Amino acid sequence: MDTTQPPPPPERCPACGWYLPGTGPPAFAVCPRCALPLAGELVAEVRGIDTALAGLDAERGRLLVRRAQLLAAARPVPVPMPVA
Prior knowledge:
Blueprint: H1 41-74
């Protein structure tokens, strides 16, 4: 059994979504595409908000699936009409 972990997904700029080279702390002080600073309290808060929004999106998707299941279960089963 392979116990190695897959590599983490590439880091992306929180503003423009550009893939940032390297792993760990940003290799650049600013995004090479949009020039957003990649370190500091403001950017850390933006990243935290992005993480929270991704969690909300996942929960919304789960709730939409469950809603569809409940609506399907609540609908009456059609009864075939007798053939004359």
